Records
---
Amino acid sequence: AQGAAMPFGNTHNQLKMKYTPEQEFPDLSKHNNHMAKVLTPELYERLRSKQTPSGFTLDDIIQTGVDNPGHPFVMTVGCVAGDEETYDVFKDLLDPVIQDRHGGYKPTDKHKTDLNADHLKGGDDLDPNYVLSCRVRTGRSIRGFCLPPHCSRGERRAVEKLSTEALASLSGDLKGKYYALKNMTEAEQQQLIDDHFLFDKPVSPLLLASGMARDWPDARGIWHNDNKTFLVWVNEEDHLRVISMQKGGNMKEVFSRFCDGLTKIETLFKERGHVFMWNEHLGYVLTCPSNLGTGLRGGVHVKLPNMSKHAKFEDILKKLKLQKRGTGGVDTAAVGGIFDISNADRLGFSEVELVQMVVDGVKLLIEMEKKLEKGQPIDDLIPAAK
Amino acid sequence: MPFNCHNDYKMKFSLDDEFPDLSQHNNHMAKVLTKEIYGKLRSKSTPSGFTLDDVIQTGVDNPGHPFIMTVGCVAGDEESYEVFKDLLDPVISDRHGGYKPTDKHKTDLNFENLKGGDDLDPNYVLSSRVRTGRSIKGFTLPPHNSRGERRGIEKLSIEALASLEGEFKGKYYPLEGMSDAEQEQLIADHFLFDKPVSPLLTCAGMARDWPDGRGIWHNDNKTFLVWVNEEDHLRVISMQKGGNMKEVFRRFCVGLQKIEEIFKKHNHGFMWNEHLGYILTCPSNLGTGLRGGVHVKLPKLSTHPKFEEILTRLRLQKRGTGGVDTASVGGVFDISNADRLGSSEVEQVQLVVDGVKLMVEMEKKLEKGESIDGMIPAQK
C-alpha cells in the first residue's frame, strides 16, 4: 500500500542520497530529546530515502530536534509530523518516540475516545475558594491538508476558510466571532490581550525550527463565543486548538461545553465533506507526537501554598497522574502559591478518564491543603498510584 | 526535468490561493513579484529541488526594515539565478543600479592595478578591511544544503586552507567543540561569528543544524580570516589597523587566488559567470561580493549638511562601527563601497581609497574652519 502511494525520485531527497548515511547523519552528541534518544544511524539509513505523498522527509521531521538539543527542565519531543501519513511512513522512528513519551504505549495498542460529558462523575463542585479557574484544551487536524510544519499558504487559507464557515454556524451559548490576525484593529487586539485570548507569532525555537511560523500572520486567527468561554485558535501550532474555560471550580460545565462544542464543530466539518484526522491506534492526529490521543490538557488554577511546599508534593502529583505548571503555562513559575494542575497523559486514556483524574485529584489536593492549614498531617490521604 | 512531489502537490491550489499577501511589505522581492510572475514560476524547480516559494520565503516572513530596503529573496543553488530569472533579474536590476540581464560583469583581482591606497592618514583612518564571499561549485547554498553537503564544503575548505603558507599560514577552529579559551580569544579579536539571530537569515533556513559544519580559520598574523558555512560557503576577510588599504587589498587578492587554485585542483572551482560575477546566496552580494572599507574619524564632515550627498556622489556608504544597522560612535564611521555588481574589485576599492582620501582632506579643512564647497565632487 505504501509503494502504491510512494512518489519516486523526489529530486531534493535524491540529491542527498549521493552522500552516505554517515555524512548526512546529524550530530546528536549534545542532544537530549526523544528523537535523539531513538534515532540511530541504522534507523536513519533505513528511512532517509522515504517521503510521504506530500513530500515530507525524515530530515523535515527531525529538523527541530537537531536544531534544539534540549531543554534543561523539559524532555522535548524533537520531531514533528508534516501530514497524517508521516506517522505511518516513518513509524520506525515515531513508534519508539511515542512509546517513550506516552508511558510505554505499544504500536499495537488501541486508543479510546470518549467525549460524552455525562460520563464524568462530579466535577461541578471544586471549592472556588481554592480553584480560581478551570480549562480544557485540545487540538484537531483536518484530514486532507498538510500540518503546520509543511502546509502551503493555499492549504492554510483553505483550513481557515473551512474553519470560519463552520464556526459561523454555531449558535446559542456557542455563538461567536472570528478575528483574523492579519486585519485585527488595535481595539480588538487590546481586548483579546486583556481576555488572555490572543496568541502571537511563536518565538520558541522549538516551533520556529519546524517551519510552523512561515507566512505569519497569513490565515491565522482567533474565534471565540460571545460569552468568552469557548475559544478556537486557527493555524497556530495545529490546524485548530479548541479551548473551553471559565472562572471558578465547575469543571463539569467546562468539560460539557468542551465536548458539546467539539462535537458540533466536527459535525459541521463533516457536513462540508471534511473530517478530523483520527485513527483507532493514535486517536486524534496532531503536529507534535506529544499531543496524540486526546490531545487534551484539562486543568485548574488552584491555590496550594501549603501543599506545594510539602515534601511529598511531586510524588503525590505523580501518583495522581497530574503535572504542575506556573500560571503562565509551561515553563513558568508559580506565583503566590497558585499552580496550574493538569493531566499528564494524552494517549491511551479517554477524554473522560483524563478529566476525571483532574477532578478527583484536585479534590484530594484541596482536602490535603485544608488539613495542612489546620496543622494536621496528610499521610493517610496519600493515594496509591493510579 | 526535476521531480518535486511537494511542489506538484501545491499546484492543486490555485494561483490566487497560493500567492503571498505582500500588502504590508517593502522589500525588493515584494516590489517585483506579481501574480503573473508567480504563476509563471511556481511550477518550476531547480535540479536540486529549490522552488519559488523557497526563494521568497524570507521576504514573505519579513515585510521590511524601517531603514534599509532588504532584498527579500535568496538563491538555494547556482541554478536559482537561471531558473527564476524572471523574478531575480528585475530584483538585481533594482538593487544594482539598473544592471541589465544582458550586462557583463568584470572581475579584476590584480592588486597592482590599484593606484595609491598605501598612505591614508592613520590619524584619521583607524583600520582597513576588505571582505567578500565565495560559493563552491557543485554544492547547494546555505538556505538549502544538507548536512552532508555542508560537511563536504567544510572538509574541502579545511584542506585548502591548511595548505597555505608564509603570511597565510593559519589554523581552523570549528564552532563545534571550540574550547572556552579559543572562544574568548576569537571574541577578543572580533573574529567570532555566532548563530544568526536575524529573522532575515533564519527564515531562509541558513541556520539549520547549527553549529554543524561551521567554523573560523585565520592566519597566525590575524590579518586574513575565513568564515566557513555562515551566510555563504566562504566569507573571506583581509584586515589590519591603520590606513594601508593597498596592503589589505594585496593580501586579499593573493589569498583569494591561492584558495581558488586549491579548490580548482579538487574540481570544485568557485561559482562565477560573466553576467553575475561571483554567485552568492543573497542577490545583493553578486558581482564582486566585495565590501571594502575603513573605520575613519569624521566628526566634522559627518555633521556637514552635504555629507550624505558627498557619499552618494563618491559611490560610498556609511555604517556605524558595529556594522550594518549600528550607529557611529565618537564620530567614527565605517565607510565602504556601495556597489557590488557592474564594477570590478579594483574599481570598487579605488573608489574607497580615493573617496576616503578626499573626505579626510575635507575633514582637515573643516577643522581649520575653512569651507569645503570647492572640493565637492561630481557624481562618479
---
Amino acid sequence: LGHDIHFHDKKIALLEAGPRKEYDHMPESYSNRVSSISPGSATLLSSCGAWDHVCSLRLKPFRRMQVWDACSEAMIVFEKDDLDDMGYIVENDVIMSALTKQLDAVADRVEVFYRSKAVGYTWPLPSHGCDTSPWVQVELADGRRLQTKLLIGADGHNSMVRKEAEIKNIEHQYDQSAVVATLHLSEATDNNVAWQRFLPTGPIALLPLSDTASSLVWSTSHDHASELLAMDEESFVDSINSAFWSNINHSDFIDAAGAMFRSAISLLKPSGTAVRQLPPSVAKVDAESRAVFPLGMGHATEYVQHRVALIGDAAHRVHPLAGQGVNLGFGDIACLAHHLSAAAFNGSDLGSLKHLLKFETERQRHNVSLIAATDVLKRLYSTTLAPLVLLRTWGLQATNALPLVKVRI
Amino acid sequence: QLPLFRFTVKRPFSTSHSSVDSKEMKKFQLLAHKWWDEEGEYAALHSMNDIRVPFIRDTLLSMSSNYHLGNPLSGIKILDVGCGGGLLSEPLGRLGASVTGIDPVEDNIRTADQHKSFDPVLAKRIQYKSSSLEEIVEESMETFDVIVASEVVEHVADLETFIKCCSQVLKPEGSLFITTINKTQLSYVLGIVVAEKIMGIVPEGTHEWEKFVPPEELERLLESNGFSVRSVKGMLYNPLWGSWSWVESTSLNYAVHAVRAGAPAQPHATDTLPETELQQRSGTAGTA
C-alpha cells in the first residue's frame, strides 16, 4: 500500500512483533522455515519491488510437482506445458528481508514499529453521533496510543485482532504436527521437482532449496512427530528415506486394481500416464534444523467489520499439504490493496464497510473452496481402508489423465 | 452568533430574492442527525458518492494538465452548495481540494463540522458555513474554481437566481456540477410514490414533484446565464443493491457539467456560436 500512488498522502503504521530483519547476503546454511511461492504471489511481490531483492538473495524455482500415494501406485504430476517455473521455494527470512528493504523505500508514508505489541483495542460505534472518536484506538505495550481509520489484522491464526473484534472463528485442531528440517541430498541433482507422498500418518514433502539441499515438511501424528524430533540424525534420515521409498503399505488388491485402471486409461488417453520419476535420497540433516509445529484448520466467519479487516492466517488457516497457506494470504493482500486503492481514489473513508465487504465477498468465495478441498484431501488420505484408498487411487489416476482438471488445480 | 442573527433578520425579507425555501429547510432540520448513518435514511446519498465523486474528479482531471494521482484535486477550490451533513464535501476534501460547504440549515452545518473535526486533514481542508448562496455572493465574487450543487436545485425556490449567483462566485471558465431529478411521469411514480412512500429509499416528503427540473429547462437557464453545458448524463438507482449507475436516459435522475464562459475579452471557439446552437438544441429538446 505504501507504494500505491493513490496512497501518496496517507499514513500507515505497521506493528511488528519481531526484530528488524535485513540481510545483505544469506548465511551458508538454509533456514528451516520456507514457503512455496506461487507465480501469482511472485507477481504481487514484484509489483512493490520486493521480488528483485528475493532473486538477488536466494530462491529455488521448481518446474514439476510429483504427488503419490503410499498405499498404491497412483501418482499425479503437475507441470506447466512450456516447462515454465511452477513456483518457487523461498526461505521466509529472505522474503522478510526483501520486504524490509521496500518498506524503507516508503518510510515517509509507512512507519514500522519493530518489537511492538498491541495490548488493547477500542472499537468505534458504527454510527457515530457522539463525542467519542469514530476511529479505532490501539494501545501498545510501551504505553503509546495510536488511532486509525482502518485496522488490518495480519496477526496469524491466533489473531488478537480477530478475538478482540469478537469475530467468530470456525476452527479445528488436526491430530497432526508438522516436522520441518533442512536436508542434504546424497548426490547433487537438478533438484527442480517438489515431491509429496501421502502416508497414512500424513503427507511427507521434499521441497528443493538448491542442487544439494531440500527442505522437509512432514505432517504426521503428534507422537510420531516427537519421536522424529528426538531420534538421532542417522535414524531420522533413515525414516525419511524409507517414507519415500518403502512399499509396505501396498496391498496386492489395491495394486492390481490400480494397475487395471491405469491400463484402462492408457487405452482411452495414451498420454494420460506420466513418467514416474524417482525422488532423491537423503544423506544427512542439518543439525539444529529440526522443529515441530502443531497443525490445524481455521476460518473466520467474517473477514471484515466497520474499520477492521483480517487477512492471511488471521482469516484462514490450512493444512500445509497443498502448499497454499501463504499464497492465500498474498491473494488476500492483492485483493484488499486493490479495493483500498480504488476507495482512496474515490476519496472514501478507508474504514467504510462498503468496499471492505467487496473484499470479503471476493476472497471468501475463493478461499472457502480451497480450504474445504484441502481439508477433504487431508481426511481422505489419512486412512488405509481399502475402499477409500481405491477411491483416491482411481481419483488421482483419473485426475492425472485429465489436463483440464490439473490446470485448474 | 453573528451569522444566526443575520439569518433570522434576513428571512422575512428574502422570500422573493432568495433561492432558499423555508418549508424545505424545516424538512431537513428534522433529519439533521441522520446524515452519517451509511445504512440509514441517507444511504442512497452515501452510495451516490460512488458515481458523483469519480464524475467530478475525472472531469476536472481531464481539464487540467498537471496533476498528481495521489492528490488529484489539490489546489482546487470547491463550493459545495447545500452540503447537508458534508457527505460530498468530505471525499472531495480527501482528494486534495479546499472545500467550502454551505447549507441554510444550521443543524446540518453543526453535524458536518462535528464529523470532520476528528480527521486532522479534513478539518483543515473543509470549511462549513451556515448560509444561503446569495448571502456569500458579495464576499466571494469569482472565488471558486468549481461549484457542486448536488441534489439541491430541486429544493430551490428560484432557480434562475440560483444560477446567476453560481455564475457570480465562480471564476471565469470555472465548472458547475449539478445532480438533480427530472420532472416526468416516471419520476413521479418512481421518485416519489415508490422511493418515498413505498420503499422508503428517500425520507417521506423530501421531494415535491412540482419542483423537479427537466434537463432541457436547466440547460436553457444555464446557457442564458453565461454557462456552456458540456455534458448531461442520466443516473439510475438500483434499490436491490443500493447502488447507482450511469444510464442513457435522463428521465429520472441526471447530472450536468457546465462551464462558466470566459471573460468577454477573450472569446473562445466554443463561445462564438451560442445563440444559434442554443436555438437548435432547445428546438430538438421540445420535440423529444
